[in-house]
């Protein structure tokens, strides 16, 4: 069930909100209503895997209680943590990586293997990461075990963030879920406005750009030229931003409508002036997770420069593997890790000496090369695309294949990012304050674009969110 489908917009969401509103006088009823709605929401798309999640929830609760009751720094405490983490990683490895691993073993020719067809459950990586976070935080003493099964199950299944984040730590939201705040008109208005913005980003921009990117990457390099290669990469660069930030807007907005406050996940990443800054602005909940649960345990920057560089590279190599079971994702992670290391060695100082707009452009080009690897169907295609992108004289053998309306969508997307950059040069400027100052016009424009987005969503085939694959 997608957030912008008619089934969700006109039946599921209103029904859940009305039930939540009717239960406004009883905290427990509100929690039960949200839990049942969240389980139903996930079971609609994953009727089998939902039982796997239930089983893993039971394992988490049992392991966390054993961890909490074991003496500090004891082997028993660590063994219970290892059991809980292993159980969650086993789910992720089986559903996401088993086929990939077996394919590569089979490709070596040492042994012939039968490759099973295992369907990847929606949002499995986000679910597993959040559940591991809970176990580790109990082990660290950051949080205590959940007070009830329903409270922890609501944390795992909470439908606004269930499928593609933001990744939320249990202790950051447990208090809100225990109280299940009664609905408030201000929360509904603010949340629904944010939700509308996300729908607009997804349907009017991301989905339009997706058609152009898919068109280009569906062709062999021999059928493309310099312009087509850059077109495909440009389309995807803006598609993935507006697609994923649009989902985050919808998730944050939906949660706010029910009175919950989720952390931001994007902060205008394409205005970044270095790769380090880019990753502080892009998918911030994942970057924060990697820093706290992988980078710091590896030693962070406490063990000397060489070890710091290795830790950075390993963390982003792991990020690439997390994104998908393909060598393109592995290469993309290694590529980003390399530039984070180069930032620390010399690149950050070099970029700081450039004018802000020039450092921003250089960073944007580095990011685009990474997105080329990320989007390509294979490493061979990635190499071919990158080769075409440095050959201005390369011309496609046939007629131009990229219709002008894809370029129009890319121009609008680029203009938005340029405006974000330009706003930095206006002292005291804030998009939020601007919207408040011209509230009637801003609200009318938002409603108009939202209606146009819904009309497009009904007319065109639905395109799943990119991060549903992860």
Number of domains: 2
Number of helices, counting only DSSP H or I runs of 4 residues or more: 19
Query: Roughly what is the average pLDDT, rounded to an integer?
Result: 92
> Could you spell the SSE succession in H and E letters?
HHHHHHHHHHHHHHHHHHH
Largest β sheet strand count, sense and barrel closure: none
Question: Count the strands?
Answer: 0
How much helix, percentage-wise, in residues?
over 70%
Structural class: mainly alpha
Overall description:
It is a single chain. Helix 3 (49-69) crosses helix 6 and helix 9 (185-217) packs across helix 17 (404-422). The protein folds into two domains: 6-180, no CATH class; 187-464, no CATH class. The protein is mainly alpha-helical and 470 residues long. The mean pLDDT is 92. It has helices at 6-22, 27-45, 49-69, 75-107, 124-140, 149-157, 159-162, 170-179, 185-217, 226-257, 275-281, 284-295, 305-323, 327-352, 356-375, 379-388, 404-422, 431-437, 439-459.
Furnish the topology, listing elements before pairings.
Blueprint: H1 6-22, H2 27-45, H3 49-69, H4 75-107, H5 124-140, H6 149-157, H7 159-162, H8 170-179, H9 185-217, H10 226-257, H11 275-281, H12 284-295, H13 305-323, H14 327-352, H15 356-375, H16 379-388, H17 404-422, H18 431-437, H19 439-459
